[in-house]
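Sample pair:
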Amino acid sequence: MGQYQFSYKHQEPAQWLKHFSDCFPSTLKGQELFLEKPFGEGKLSYEIIQEGLWVKFLKFKVFNPVLVQRESIETNDIFILDFFLSENVLRQTIEGGKEISHSYQDVNMLFSSSMVSADINLEANEWMNIVQVLFTKEWLTENVDLDNYRLKAFFSQDKPIFLSENLDHHLRSVVANVTEDSTHKLNLTSTIYQILDYLLFKFNGRNLSIPNRAFHKEDTEKLFHAKSYLDKNVCENVSINILCELIQMSRSKFKRMFTQIFGKPPYRYHLENKLEKGKELIETKRLSISETAYFLGYDDHGSFTRAFKKYHGFLPSEL
């Protein structure tokens, strides 16, 4: 059998689930949809946190390739956070031809507005684990003080909005608590609010005035190769020159494009990954502070402690 195709627009979860059930073999039971043969297996479900705020749980696999086309609408009425928790790679083409690969080890959070279109390629027989947080513009303006985050102008844009973010150690631990087995509604609500607060704070630290631009596929692949190299060598001191030589790209172009896609310059990205890893190692008692400093490539305990305090706001000995 050939590739399936599924098209939809940004909708409230109930409408989306009903539309999906009408297109493919499945059983819809309230807020849960169970996939059936010959299409696939697994479950899609959602929870209502508040009016205008939802969380969706997508844990499934398909038996044949599926092209999912998310169509844009004319206004930014709905915003969506996609958390990619699968080890398998999910490839997505965003508005303007920007190609992104998602997995738990790659870019693993995508924020987009309802004016963004996307083509998502689902490979056959690969389990996907995705958590989505959706909220309407009305919910956002009624429940969040955007002036406090200095993001009012950002969310008022009348154009497609798209950002990607890595799950650092803190955010990974928070997202890990968002599961479909979260039977305690208060805990689930609290966790969703923690995620939104943390990400709005992270967005506040980014240069959101840089316009989204389409990149050539070759350049995009090079940037993700460089990012993957940094992720795999978090304990090493990797220079910009090494990365530029690795991907055959000029230093100025690399720094500009890396910052635009990943929200921060490559040096800062690598440094923050180091310090997040250091926090994880110390918190879990896997290494002492001195051992952690050496493991992460610092020449001495003091340099690591100063960098740690500057980034986290407290000393590693205070963990």
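The radius of gyration is 20 Å.
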